[in-house]
Design a protein that fits this description.
By secondary structure, the chain is mostly beta strands. The protein has one domain: Copper binding periplasmic protein CusF (OB fold (Dihydrolipoamide Acetyltransferase, E2P)), CATH 2.40.50.320. It is 14% helix and 36% strand. A five-stranded mixed barrel has the order 1-2-3-5-4. A hairpin with a 5-residue loop joins strand 4 and strand 5. The relative contact order is 0.26. The structure holds copper (II) ion. Copper (II) ion (CU) binds next to strand 3.
Amino acid sequence: MKRRVIPLVLALCLGSPRALLAQCHEPEEPVHATRGRVVAFERNGLVRIAHEAIPGVMAAMTMVFAPCPAVDLTGVAVGDTISFRFTRGPGGRFLLLALEPAGSSR
Ligand SMILES: [Cu+2]
């Protein structure tokens, strides 16, 4: 599947830009770190990720995240295993704060 670099403007359309950017820079909600597999890049700029269980927070599940502007999705492809950090942003939207490849497991 062809990977697209998510333009900043798309991320900003997902909520109040000011509120979203503020949460990207200084999250008010807890920040969680976990691993997952990229399932899809959605047309609306969201990234669908199947993540591992996060004890005390969430069971393992597949859910969508809005990438913060600082997140570089270049080179990230569907099927990749990643380590990432996220928080809950405005309107209950989950924000992808950081992402990196999680080893070479395929
Ligand atoms: Cu989840």
